[in-house]
Amino acid sequence: MANVLIFIDNPGAALKKSSLELLTLGRSLGETAVAVNGDLSDGVSAAFAEYGVSGIYRPSASDLDDYLVAAKAAYVAAAVQAAGATTVLLDNSPEGKEIAARVGIRLSAGVVTDVVAVDQDGTAHKSVLAGSYTTAAKTTTPVSVLTVKANNVTPEAAAGPSAPEIATVEVPADGTSTAARVTAREQKVASGRPDLTDARIVVAGGRGVDGDFGPVEQLADALGAAVGASRAATDAGWISHDAQVGQTGKTVSPQLYISAGISGAIQQKAGMQTAKVIVAVNKDAESPVFEIADFGIIGDLFDVLPQATEEIKKRKG
Amino acid sequence: MEETLKIIVLVKHVPDAQFDRHLNGEGYTTDRGESILSELDEYALEAALQLAEARGGSKAGNQVIALSMGPSGAVNAVKKSLQMGATEGVHLTDDALSGSDAAATSLALAAAIRHLGAGAPVDLVLTGMASTDGETSLVPAQLAERLGLPQITFASTLEVDGGRLTARRDADTYSETVEASLPAVVSVTDQINEPRYPNFKGIIAAKRKSITTLSLSDIGVDPGQVGHAGSWTTVTSAEERPPRTAGTIITDEGDAGIKLVDFLAAQKLL
Nearest CA to CA, how far is A212 from chain B (Å)? Predict the structure, then answer.
């Protein structure tokens, strides 16, 4: 019996940093078990032991990826009941939130999304209204379901390794009977850059790049950063919609956000104003982005960015 | 001629994100003084209108019902939907609904949708990808779970053929095609279409369209199941963050790139 259940979808060959964060956060709240979907490699099993996990659940079915969300939610809810858990932790991806939403209905459990910290008494902390408020929320139900944002916990192994027991959970039939079915899936070409939502540094371009993301990408690569964009840039088709930061795109909270050629209207600000440090480069001195920038440069990004890229390469040797 | 559709579009009135937004309401709820139709719901409405128009529109018997839950101001989201072309509007409103979290909201909306489907069944429930205020994206998934219907989320294309839905979804690392049978709940992204603006004809026509007001007793929901009392989460505190203040601003004199790197080095960000 574990009081915290953590869902990890398709861990692959090694656990992602965000999964290690969930394991660390879970351990601070009690005894942890994991519900895994997909293959379980030796490396991942070893990491679970290292992080003090007491039980590993696996689904009775291997085709959960062929359905949209509902099947995984049915499995996670069944695993929570098998473990007797009172806290459920999931990642804060769109899919993580949807699974959480459905697990909440199945278990009559309150759901809190976008969580950045959890107190011992179960109080969850988050920021709302585009980072303009921080709130604390609690569930009023026996089971709490929380989706946790990445980069808010430092992964830490347990004092001593555990010997997790592996058990199979029967996936309820109603999880698949009405679920939408995935009929085709194409992998996109990987950029080799860090994931935008988890990245430590983001370099983003907007209208001012005028169709040429070259300087933005080169600076990002010199810094080991992810590339982001404003809605104006993605709507113009200069870069994939996946890169959009803002109210209708992704919300990021990196250590450093470099904004180039973006005016910084509310739509963009909503997605990045919780970044620790903001640097802005824009030709227009009146751009609202300068009101929130820690360091602002009134200048042409086509001069400033390449010069900075060269200087970084020089200093990094 | 294809079969006609009865579509419900969920629309929400939200505080305008162009202005400062506050959690001044009871139980740290949003102040909805200056509220508008959530921008992301316009894409769902447009998708519904296109599906209906492809089948001969309202003349052929297609229905696009805009449903909004909320206090008196929520009727504005319904009115805007009627101006864009929805055939009828429904406003679910009751004092007991105030403070409902996602679970309580989905309970009330599920009951309203069942009520609206009592005569002729509903084929499709369309929603936006998130509200632009709460942004939790929980309600559509919880609604589908409560109604026991198939759900497609984050659709960037949507086709209905006979009793089947086909949609495309784009994630960061893959794109996929998904299928479901009708009736279903579908949330759409802002990539699916370009929502129309209400034209003069639409604004005039909207004045003649009816808006039905529903209370909790109309849809058979007990007041204790919704609002603060029926919610499974409670907000215990809310603090306004101090606004970010501007830092150092310089004008490029040919060496701003170097100064930028100096700043990063001083902040230990290199």
Answer: 18
